[in-house]
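Weekly puzzle thread! Below is a chain. First person to post its structure in token form gets bragging rights.
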Amino acid sequence: MMEMLHYPFMQRAFVAGLMIAVLASLSGSFIVLRRYSLLSETLAHVSLVGVSVGLLFGMSPLWMAVLASLVASWMIEYLRSVHGMYSDSVLAIFLSGSLALAIVIVSLAGSFNASLFSYLFGSILSVSVEDLWVMGIFGSLAMALLLVFFKELYFIAFDEDVARAGGIRVTMLNFMLVSVIAIIIALSIRVVGTLLIGALMVIPAVAAIRFGMGFYPTTLLSIGLALISVLIGLSASYFFSLPSGAAIVLCLLVLFIIALVVNRR
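Winning reply:
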């Protein structure tokens, strides 16, 4: 089993996967608590627009995905907080609209090929050294922001109005949180794929909540479940030639079912 770690592409895949597992599950705890889970799915579809534009014009799909996700996250938060639109309505508009736009761009570019599918479902072979540097730099920045403002984000997640009355800069922190999530999602597309990254953010947190602990232990358990899923999923991907994203998400589903059975409440 350890022989797979002799290959550089597997070493890169595990490093990238473990980084993404920590970042996705940590940020996912906040959006699940806020009943804002569809945000991750929506931004994942938006990042597909960036990938399509990158493939069409020969630019870096990863950087274009980061740019598209960031812009969309700001627009979503602006429409929700400033114009008072319902969150689910805004997310539904962006989700379906971005998917339609991505399909049109890919169709025009004639890019329905293996490269596109690696971005859709993840591919352990596609993680490069450059990707690891990008993930390391931006992932460290995202992690630092989440940890520095952990307490404030925790209060906002429970009650936004009370947090605002308590002097917390809710608007600024909401924009920061959606920006961090947008970057994490865009960075994750190499490992998990744009269509499956939402599961890596939401399922660990939902499974951990089943154990009825406090927010901090639940967040740590969520991170642990995500790490286990990435380790098992990437190993299964290597041995059985499976798409890495699908293998990781299936592991998450198994852990969620176990949590459901263990805690029947």
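Puzzle host: Confirmed. Bonus trivia for everyone else. The chain is about 80% helix and 0% strand.
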